[in-house]
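Students often ask why we bother encoding 3D structure as a string. The short answer is that it lets us treat folding as translation between two languages. Here is a chain of 398 residues written in the first language.
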Amino acid sequence: MTTRTIRDLSAADLAGKRALVRVDFNVPLDEAGAVSDDTRITAALPTITTLLDQGAKVVLLAHFGRPKGAPEAKYSLAPIAARLTRLLPRPVHFLGETVGATAVAATHALPNGEVLLLENTRFLAGEEQNDDALSQQLAELGDLYVNDAFGAAHRAHASTAGVAKYCRPAVAGLLMETELAYLGGALAAPARPFVAILGGSKISGKIDVVEALLPKVDHLLIGGAMACTFFRAMGCETGNSLVEPDRLEMAKDLLARAGHKLVLPVDAVIAPSMDAGSAARVVGRESIPAGEAMFDIGPASVEQYRTLIESARTVLWNGPMGVFEKPPFDAGTFAVARAMAVATDHGATTIIGGGDSAAAVAEAGLESKMSHVSTGGGASLEFLEGKELPGVSALDRR
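And here it is in the second language, the structure alphabet:
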């Protein structure tokens, strides 16, 4: 069985109907309070436009920031409504409420083919607890429910899961469909060789992904500080590098079980601190001295990883190779991004699993060179771990 999407709905299902659409508009604002990166907003436009073209009234639900279940002016969606108005060539209305009689009346009064963005769902007590009464209130806002917020699909909240019990049909939007197709396809039937790249600071945060991917991949490349826990497990000195002592036995076990599949850096870019880039130098992974730490993979590792990535048919990447925000410790991460772009040109399916990897690809100007850049870091990780995403399992199946 697969998840139903808006493609399964006819024009008759949509014309004149209130389509309640959960989107992920949790975007950064600049110091002036304006949207500084509208990637997540533009990612939702195909779903919104498709529904509008079918004559639906589109009612949008979204969260922003971390308010504590009550209104906070700095977390209002008003700036996001302003950006949406500029991006969408259709009338966009904003209401500073989310549920209740005024909100329900506004949804009914909305003309066909227009958009209403309601205020931050996290202003509502009960949203993050998936409160049943709140879910029923949210359901009053629409005649059908569409979840297009993949970035929040791993949260069992009232607006992502609970509302689908009471507002049906409940289907996926086009962005959600694309995310599930790429990530699900990589796990279910990848073209081979299948190479996965995992980086970041801690093995503990990625251990379930490692366990889930190892049986499926041909090679699993490790980067970032999490590599240092493996180095220590191998008996190497790691200096001041970030190591998780309580994960050493786990790392030893993985090394024993993974064999040739698990590929670790052979060299490291080290420095006394991440702010001491001018003192950076390259050493072998077994030669990280006391008083210094690894902040990126070294050039020999880059070349090894580049060869494996460029010869792959499916590549999945989640997590940077180093502290890419601080040159010169960005070289490994950007080299992986360039290698993935080459792999795409060679016909490979290349998938960026959101989060810092997506930010690095964007900074490198290579987003268009990837097959798919996920909009959800946490959701991508949980999907790759094999966990059920509440925002997906709540939807109709076909």
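Translate back mentally: The chain has a mean pLDDT of 95. Keep this in mind for the problem set.
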